[in-house]
Amino acid sequence: HRGSLAYLPRCRAKTMEARIRAWPKVNSDEPRLLAHAGFKAGCVQIVNIDDREKTPNHGKQLVSLGTVIATPPILIIGIRGYSIDPRGRHAEFDYYADNLPKYISRFFKVKENSSPNSEKSLKKIKEIFAIIAVTPKNAGLSQKKPYIFEASVKGGDIKKQFTFLQKLLGKEVKIDQVFEVGTTVDTAAITKGKGWEGPITRWGVKRKQHKSRKSVREVGSLGPISPQYVMYTVPRAGQRGFHQRIEYNKRIMLMDNTENSKFKINPDGGFKHFGNVDGDFVIVHGSVPGTYNRLIKLRTQIRNAPLKVNKPNVLQVVV
């Protein structure tokens, strides 16, 4: 069958939040945050000048799909340090900001902060992560409960990374403090849920001849007589969609704020199922996983990072 076995099991995601398990390396002495988050608003058409060299369309106008992601500021609420051994990562300390907002602190218990900034306590720490909170209500959605997740900090040594995050504790970080226009990011989200689907749609197997058996849209054989069970490689019906997926290399075509943007982003009446985008937003080239209103995590590009960043020349946004 044509369906790939790369994603198994094809079951519903446990949460509405995608988990990022790998982070790119940063060859820099200055620490920086490697992730931000937003909410999918809708799709538009982008008219820009093709700046890809050695292509037939170089220097010509291109009309392509763009996805609008509302990106309210994220709040740095804590720092987490990990040690690493052959068994994996182990959390060594959590360092939280003082006087966190009630709508964030009520969802988890904050232990008493230790002082991990000493040389002795930071010696066995191998990785530093920022604990981030992003609130859908800040993007104009009705959900009040924030999404809380970790984002890696790379660049410099561990002490520099901790000092960098310590200055940001309790403060909001905007999208332009993490990424710039023209950079390429990876998008992680939970895809659209399709419900129960048969093997034809779910795995792409071929339909049977109408004279072969009573069924047409079923698999012809479930396997050999031995072993006496159905192997996991046999295409079966089941859940399709609502899976965690990461799509790579999505270029940021536009990063702006609706108050001072020269482009009209919101269609008349707002985006379907979302409404109007207010505040900071980005438009990435192409599509991203998930339905409207869904949390989209933006990570620094992990594959084939270019040596230089070219700022795209966007002429028009068609809503």
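(the above was protein one; protein two follows)
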Amino acid sequence: MIFLLILYNLLVLPMFIILSLILSIFDKKVRKGLLGRINSFSRLKSFNKDKFSEIYWFHSASYGEYQQVETLISEIKRRDKNIGIIASFFSPSGFENVEDRNIDLKIYLPFDFIFTHYKVLMLIRPKKIFFSSSDFWPSFLFVANKLNITTILTSARYRKTYYIFLKMFDKIFCTSNTDFKLIKKNISSEVYEAGNPRYDRILNNLPKHKSKAGLTKKTKNKNLILASMWNEDNIIFEKLMNSRLVNIFNKIIIVPHEISFRYINYYCTALDKKKYSYKLISEHKNFDNITEKFIIIDKVGFLSKLYLQTSIAYVGGGFSTNGIHNIIEPAAASNPVIFGPNFLNSNKFDADGLINVSGGFSIKSYEVFEQRINWLLVEKNYQFSSLNCKSFVEKFSGSTKKILEIIYDKDI
């Protein structure tokens, strides 16, 4: 282990930084990440940690992973406002898009050198460090272990390649029974089956309304959303524009996975060629007040609200190597969810679960997409699928409470 850490610090990390420096010339995201990491120590140094009784540090790779710990942070702050929360991120998508009043300091995770983290953790002395899912940084974990700082992994999944990192956590909370059994079998840490706190966050953000009334409205509105669309997903969009389904839906909402001129311009140009009416919006609006058939979203931050106005969701990423994006948000809002064939990533549990209850549908072509849409357009099928979506999310909620009960019981 020590040999691998030395090799990692002396060879792998310097090569990673050199490559990042080269890429930063051409890639704005990489440049932002580098500059952010350079400034992290000065921000930590100026952080007034003494006004808090304890410091908890939460690390997430991105905005999506932060959503898996958001309810934990909220509940910790509700129980004790004297606990300071530091949230670190690897990706600009997390650092720039997470706005949470419960965070006392938001930073990019410093470069993962042993000497860097020793300096940082000696300065801050957090009581606990939480990692979300699978963004492991070995030097950070190694130094935390040596300083006897409690390390906690939430939303854990088992992979053989994770083995060396899983051993470095004191407490591990798994998303599923399968992951729990595999990790428990191979790791000596405290391992628990707890589910995914992201489910709690999604349900907490939903308005409180009666399911039957909500479903009746969704059945009538017939709004289709194409969310988190990658280039590879545009095979669905392009064929949809030439199909009769366009006239069946009242509105078709398009949400690119990346809000940029290139992506927005692609959809505008394609719709112009077909002479379809469309409107770009950068804030949440009532679709009933928009006359255009197509709506293109050109800002992040309110996707979950859009699902409350749609009846069926296609979630992108499944035709790319990246894998599908968040399918639980639309499901919690009672949207049957359609997605591409690649869901062998962190969303596999969600995909398998929704497929098993006929709330999610994996497709390999546009033709299958159209078949699924036609099936859902039959009202009894839609009602069955929509109710099962919401029920699935509710069944696997409650993770936040389980995790905090174990943490506090063990610590007090």
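Reviewer note on protein two: The mean pLDDT is 91.
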